[in-house]
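This part of the workshop introduces the protein records we will be handling. As an example, a complete record with its sequence and its structure tokens follows.
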Amino acid sequence: GFGGGGSIVLSGKDFSIDLEQIRFSLKQGEAKRENFVIENTGQSDLNLLLDNNLKDFIRMDSAGFVLKKGERREILIDFMALEQTDAGLFLGKLFVSSGSLIKEILVALEIESRNSLFDIKTTIPENFLKIFPGEELVAEIELINFQRVGIVDTEVNYEIKDVDGNLVLREQETVAVETKTNFIKSFKIPEDVRPGEYILYSN
């Protein structure tokens, strides 16, 4: 004869986050609040822990909590730049974990000088958002002069970093600007760069 049989359901733990990355600028002395939502998509309650590696800039409303099956929770994050914080690009991550299950949110935070005389905006066209090592990256640069004292030569610095803050490429040039200028800047990506996500920073 044949023995009896049946089906079983394995109880799994999982959760989703509605945000993959956070990117914005703060002037020295400023603060800004962001938020994201965590949803328990698994089959059991979760003990969740929140952490980050940008503790000089980030304050979160909760470090740990229980999220029941099917429940959602909004997480508030306060970003702060002290007056004495050096201007520059700071890269880090937010970590959401439950046991061995860990998910990350990339954070790219630019700290601007409160008394900046110039503003620079960098836009990467959509067809250059995904490229291969050895190819050319093209960016649209807009440079604004707040001084309004005639044509000024300003030094522009470019850096490409990976999500861990490791420098891949650095370039520098002098640009003449009166009130506002727009131009195209291209970068040759090194052949030995590993596949992954990278940040282009201009200042």
User: Anything to note?
Assistant: The chain has no helices and 15 strands. The first strand starts at residue 15 and ends at 17. Residues 6-10 have pLDDT under 50 and may be disordered. The two ends are 78 Å apart (CA to CA).
